[in-house]
UniProtKB/TrEMBL annotation:
Keyword set includes Nucleus: yes
Record localization: Cytoplasm; Nucleus
Originating species: Xylona heveae (strain CBS 132557 / TC161)
Stretches the record annotates as Disordered: 732-815, 893-913, 931-954
Biased composition, class Basic and acidic residues, residue ranges: 893-902
Alphabetized InterPro entries for the sequence: ARM-like, ARM-type_fold, Armadillo, ARMC8/Vid28
Lineage, highest ranks first: Eukaryota, Fungi, Dikarya, Ascomycota, Pezizomycotina
Name recorded for this polypeptide: ARM repeat-containing protein
Keyword Cytoplasm: yes
Amino acid sequence: MTRPASPPLLAELRDPSSISAQVAALRALKNEIIGHEQRKESWINLGVVPPVVRILTSARARGKAASSRDGNGMSRDGQGIVHDSFGDAQDEARLQATIVVGSLAQGGPAFVAPLLSAGVIPPLLATLAPGEASPQLLLATLRALDSIAQSLPSDYPGVGLSDASLPSLLCGRRNAENIAAILSQTSSASIIQEQIALTASIIAKSCREDRHRAALARHHVLDALAARLASFIVATGFILSTAEPSADRPHATEAIPPPAPSRAQLAPILEAIAVIIQHSKYRTLQLLFSPAMVAVFPPSSLDPVAKAAWGFALTPRTAHLNPIDQLLPQLPGYYSKSSSPQSAAFPPLGSSRFSRTSSATNLASELGSSNERALAEDIDSPLVAWLVHVARAEGGRIRVMAAWVLSILCRSGFAHKRREASLALLIVPLLVRILKDECDKLDVTQSPDACDGWAVIERAPLVLALLVMDSPDLQKAADDADAIKVLAQLLKKTFEAVPSSTRPAYWSANPTETQYASSSVEALSSNNLGPAGVSPMVTHLMRCRAGALSALAAISPFKDEYRKKIIDNGVVPYIIDSLKPLEPGAAGVSDGISTTSAGNPPSVLLAACSAARALSRSVSVLRTSLIDNGIATPLFSLLRHHNIEVQISATAVICNLVIEFSPMRETILDAGVLHILCQQAHSPSAKLRLNAVWALKHLVFSAPNDVKMSCVRELGPSWLIQLITEETDDFGNYGEEFRPSTPRTPLGMGSSNAAGEQVDLLNSTEPERPCAGDEYEGDLTMTDSIGSLSRSSRPDVSLETNGANSSSRLGTAPSTTENIKARLAVIKDDELDPVQQARRDDIAVQEQGLDLIRNLICGPGAPEMIDFLFSTLGQDQMFHIFESKLRPRVVDGDNQRADRTGARAQRAASAGTTTTYPQYRIGNIAVSASSSSSSPSFSQPPQNANQNQTSGKSIPPTPEIILAVCFVLVHIAAGQPRHRQILISQSDLMSELVPLFNHPNRHIRAACAWIVINLTWVDDTSDQMNGRARALELKNLGIESRLRGMESDPELDVRERVKTALAQLGSLLR
C-alpha cells in the first residue's frame, strides 16, 4: 500500500503562507497527536519531524520581547504584574513546535530516534536562557528535554538509542551557564518552580559520566543547586544563629538565599546534587563550601558558644554533634566498640598505647591520602544532621533522595564516625521499611504511565548499599531490620515474567516500511520510527535487580552469618542467573527488549559480580552453594565480555575462586583461565591489569612448579620485569588526555585477609573527554563570597598511617578564604591530577607483581623456582630491581613540571597538610622517618626554581612496595644455603635494608627480622661455616645493633621475631 499524499497541514508547515497560518497548523498538529501514539507514528512516517525542527531552528525571539522580561523570564507591566503573554508570532510558533516535539518524545525511544536524527537537541538547548525566552516557551522546552532524557541512554548498550549529544551539549559552557541561571531564579511563581524542578530532573537523567558532572560543577551549576538547597534550609527555619552578621563577618546575611516558596520541590534538587557529587570528594567539598551553604551552616556553628545558644548540652558523648542534632530523637546507648566514646578510655585488651586514637583520627586514617586526611577535622557539617531530619520527617522520594545525599557525605568521610550510631537507628531501618513497602507494591503488569513512583524502589537499595558499605555496625543494623529477607524478595520479583507489551498496540493501515535494527542515530531516518528499545517495565526491573544485588553484596562482605542468611533465602540461583549477559544475537534484540529473560545489562552484571565476590569469601559457600549452582560457567564467559568494567569485576571474583582451598580451582585452571588472566595482565586498563595479576598471585600459590613456570612463560619474562620496574615520573607528562575524578577507595595495598582473599580493589579511571562547547579550566576557580570561616582551635590528635603506630599533627582549621581555597586545591590535585592517579596505579600493580614473584618461590618446590627465576629473569637484574625499590627515587626537576609540583606542594603547605613523616619511638630509640635514608622528608617545597632544578626531588619508596620486596627476600633466604649465600653477597641491597629495621611500619620491621632469621638458619653442619660468615656480615652491617634496639618494640610480633633473630645470631657468633 502506498502512502497517502501529503496533507495540507504538512504543506503549511514546510512552506507556510504566513506566520499565523504556520502557528495554526502547529496547533492543529498538536491537538491531533497528543495522547495518540498511532497518529504520532503516522505523522512521523509522513515526514513531519524535519519541518518542525526547522521551525525551532529558524525562529528566534525578538530582542524587544527579551528586553521586557526580568531575570526570571517573566513579562511584567508597569505595576509589576505578571502576564502570560506569548510575545510575537515567532515565539508562538516556537512554543507550539516545542510542545509537538515534547509530545512526540513522550512516546519513548522509538519516537525520540527521528527527533535526534533531525537534530532537535541544539535548537532546544538554544532556548535555555531565562531572559530571552518566555516562561511558557522555556517550560515547554524543559519538558521536551526531560522526555528525551528519559529515553537516553539505554541500560542495554547496543539496544535502543546510543546518542550522547544531550549530556555532552548540556554540559558545555554556555548551556551550563543557562542551566545555572534557571536554577538561580527567585520568583515564587509556579511556572518558575516547575522550570527549576525540570532542570534538576534533566541533570539527574543526563549526567551519567564523570566528565559531565565535573563540567557542571566547574560552571557553577553545583553552586546554584547548593543555593536552592540552602533556601529549603532557610524555609524550614534551621539557619544557625552564628550565621547572623558579626564583627568578623559583617556581610554574613548577603549570601543567605531567600526561603524556598511553598511550590518548590526538594526531591529533584537533592537528586541532582547527589548525581553531581557522587564518586568525588572534591565536588562534595565544593557543595559544603559553596557560598550559600557556608552562609547557612558556617563551620563556626560547631563552637561551644553556638551550641549553648541552641541549648545544646555539651557532654563527652555529644561533643562531636552540632545544634541540629537536638532536633533528632534521643538515642539509647547504641554504641559499638568501634564507635563508643568510652572505648577510647577502655581499649580492647592487648592494644598498645600507640593504637589509641580518637574517632576523628580513625575517620581520617580511612581517607584516601594525607591531603584528604587533613580535612578530617572539618567533618560533620550540620547538613548531615539536617538531612537525617529531612529523611525522617518527609516521605516518598524526598526521603530516599535525602538519604542518598547523606550516604554520599558519609561515604566521602564528611560525617563523624560516631554518627554511625544514629544512622544505624534512624536511617537504615527507614530505608529497609521503604524497600519492604515498595516491594509489596511492585507489579510487573503495571502500566508504564505509573512510572513516576518507580524512582523510589530503584534508588533505595543503592542508597542502602552505599550507606552500609565497609561499616560492620551499619551492616548489623541492616540485618537486624531484616534487610536480607526484603532484598531477596525484591530480587526474586525482578525475575517474574513481564507481559509481552505494557502499552496497547494500535493497528495501523500504513505500517512503517523500514525497520531499523541499528541503534546509531546516524543510521536512523527522521521519517521513520527508531528501534523500540527496552520496555519501560524491563528497564525498571533491571534497575531494581541491580540495586538488590548491590545491597546484598554491601551487607555480606565480612560475616558468614549474613552470607548464610542470603543462602537460606534462596538467592544464589538468582545471582547465577544475573551473571548471564545479553547475547548480541538473541531473538528480538534488534527490535527491542520486552522480557527479563533475554539477558542482563552491564549494570546487573557488575552488581551480580559484587554479590558473587562477597559470597565467595566464605569457604563453606564456595564448597556448597556456588559449586552446586554452577557459578564457574557464566563467570568464565564474563572474562571475555566486551565491557571492560564487566571484565574487571569478573576477574575480581576469580581472585577468590582460585585461592588454595577453593574446590573450583582445578576446574577453572583446566578451562584455560591461566591464558586469559595472562592476556588481561597485558591490558592497557590499570584496574584490569591489577586484578589479573592479583588473581595470578592466588593461582600460583602452592601450585605445582609446572603451572608456575607456565605462568612466567605465558606472561613473558621481559614483561614481568617491566611490570615491577616501570614507574610514572611524578614530574613527567603521563599522556595527553586528562583523566577525571573517580571513586577511589583507600587502597590498602596488599590488603588480603588471612585466607588470602582479595579485600579491596583499585577503581579504574577513564580518560576524560571534554564536553561539547567546553574548554577545560585547569586552575581552581572559587568565588570570594565564602567569607571568613573562623573556627575554634582543636587539640592535636594522633594518627596511625600505613599500619604504623604514629602520631601526626593535622593541619589547622581553615580561618580564611585563602585556606579554604588551598585545601580545595589540594583535594583537587589528589583527585584529578592524572600523574598522581597514574602513580597510584603503578604502585598497586607493582605490589601485586612483587607478591606474584613471592608466591612463585614459596612452597615445596621453592628452590627449583628460585633457580628458574634467576635464570629466566636474570639474577643480577632481579637484585638490582629490589635494591632500586628500597632506595628513594630522585627525580630531576629540570623542567617546568617541577615548578608546577613545587607550587602544588606550596599549596599543601599553606593548607597545613605536609607529608613529613612523624617521629616514632621504637624501643629506646627515637626515630624520624624523614631521617632515615629510606624515607626522606619532602614536606618543604623548593625554595626557588633554580634550587629545584639543580637538586631534584627525592620521593621515598612506599611502605607497600618495601614490604613486598622484603617478603621476596624472605623467601629467597628460605631457600637452599646457596641462595642465602647469594643474597648476603648483595652488599648494596643489604645496605639498603639496614635503615628499614627502624621503619615506622611494624610489618616492615617484622619482615626485616624474618630476613635475618632465614639468613642465619643453618641446615646442617656443612652450612655451619657459611652461616657464621653470614652472621659476621650482618654484624658488620650494623644489623645486630639495630636488632638490640628493637628488643623493646611496642609490637609483640616484632619483639618475638627479634628474639629469635638475636638468638640465632648469637649462636653463630660465639
